[in-house]
């Protein structure tokens, strides 16, 4: 081509290392639902997450994902999920296109469709993390994209990476998952983190699940039926007092105000649960309290100093797990 003729080459491509990928069973995967992750894949991710913790504690960062770009596309508010994905990418030497201020400053506010936005971002990035208010949106994005999509919450559907970090936290805190009694408290109907964690726990033997919610916010029927089909031990109740003494894990959640079509229904259930130091006196000495956060009063701040309060450790685990997942999906770990 005429316009290229006169310049000497700027890059010696032959001397540069090629982008190669490891076959780990996760490379190139769209992470839409936890149902895609069997015990082998979970174990792989958790082993890598352990290494990521050691990496961060010893040296802070590395260049495993140098030259890789993550697009973080958030149509709903987020603090932990977006910040931990950004931190994860940066600690592995990669970089981020952050569209996390809602999407009001992007072309979405001009009416651009999700597939068009995704097909745009994939021209720049190697992987996209998406949070969107519509159930099924992550699947829609995955169908539009040729690069991996990681679901960071699709409405009241799923939040697979939260469930990964929740399960990793249970392992880190209690050393096992088999045989545990896990009580989930709060908004079990709209809480996507509950949906994903419940699905993951179905893979473990002898786990008993206790579901504590107001009647209007019970676990969706299809999920309950799956648990019953698999002969998982389940119990439903309205009262935390029924489960506090036997629980190994107390997984507390926020009532998902934004998912209610009728504000009066929200008013009926808001503030219905509060974990207090008094309640904690009745719990096992080795129990752990978890919460995906943000909390809006479900756990009294006086519980924070209790060694069983694991929710801020859980936050940190999120970064390690997301480092492991990004590296795996990009074929670098
Ligand atoms: C959760 C979510 O967005 O589903 N937050 C999170 O990612 N840690 C839980 C919530 O918003 O209540």
Provide the CATH architecture of the largest domain. 3-Layer(aba) Sandwich
Q: Total helix count?
A: 10
Arrangement of strands in the largest sheet: 7-6-5-8-9
CATH superfamily of the largest domain: Aspartate/ornithine carbamoyltransferase
Low-pLDDT regions = none
Bound molecules: N-carbamoyl-L-aspartate
Order of secondary-structure elements = HEHEHEHEHEHEHEEHHEH
Q: What distance lies between the first and last C-alpha atoms, to the nearest angstrom?
A: 40 Å
Summed over residues and divided by their number, the pLDDT gives a mean of 95
Helix/strand/pairing class, anyone? alpha/beta
In terms of DSSP E residues, the strand content is 5-15%
Let me know the number of strands: 9
Question: What is the number of domains?
Answer: 2
Q: And the CATH topology of the largest domain? A: Rossmann fold
Cα radius of gyration in angstroms: 21 Å
Share of helix among residues? 25-40%
For this structure, what is the CATH class of the largest domain? Alpha Beta
The main pleated sheet reads as: 5 strands, parallel
Shape, principal axes of CA atoms: globular
């Amino acid at each position: 081509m005429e316009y290229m003729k006169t310049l000497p080459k700027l890059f010696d491509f032959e001397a540069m290392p090629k982008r190669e990928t490891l076959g780990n069973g996760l490379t190139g995967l769209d992470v839409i639902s936890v149902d895609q992750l069997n015990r082998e894949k979970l174990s792989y991710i958790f082993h890598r997450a352990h290494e990521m913790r050691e990496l961060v504690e010893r040296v802070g960062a590395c260049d495993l994902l140098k030259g890789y770009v993550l697009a973080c596309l958030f149509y709903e508010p987020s603090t932990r999920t977006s910040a931990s994905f950004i931190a994860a990418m940066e600690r592995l030497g990669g970089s981020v296109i952050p569209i996390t201020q809602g999407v009001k400053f992007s072309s979405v506010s001009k009416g651009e469709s999700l597939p068009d936005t995704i097909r745009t971002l994939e021209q720049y990035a190697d992987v996209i993390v998406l949070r969107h208010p519509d159930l099924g949106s992550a699947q829609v994005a995955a169908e539009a994209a040729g690069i991996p999509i990681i679901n960071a919450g699709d409405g009241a559907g799923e939040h697979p990476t939260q469930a990964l970090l929740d399960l990793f936290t249970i392992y880190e805190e209690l050393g096992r998952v088999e045989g545990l009694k896990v009580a989930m408290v709060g908004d079990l109907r709209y809480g996507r983190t509950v949906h994903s964690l419940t699905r993951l726990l179905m893979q473990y033997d002898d786990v008993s699940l206790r579901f504590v919610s107001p009647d209007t916010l019970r676990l969706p029927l299809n999920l309950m039926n799956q648990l019953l089909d698999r002969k998982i031990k389940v119990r439903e109740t309205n009262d935390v007092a029924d489960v506090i003494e036997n629980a190994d894990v107390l997984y507390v959640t926020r009532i998902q105000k934004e998912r209610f079509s009728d504000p009066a229904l929200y008013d009926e259930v808001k503030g219905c649960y509060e974990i207090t130091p008094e309640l904690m006196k009745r719990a096992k000495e080795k129990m752990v309290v978890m919460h995906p956060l943000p909390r809006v009063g479900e756990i009294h701040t006086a519980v924070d100093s209790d060694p069983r309060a694991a929710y801020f450790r859980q936050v940190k685990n999120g970064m390690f797990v997301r480092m492991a997942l990004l590296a795996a999906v990009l074929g670098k770990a």
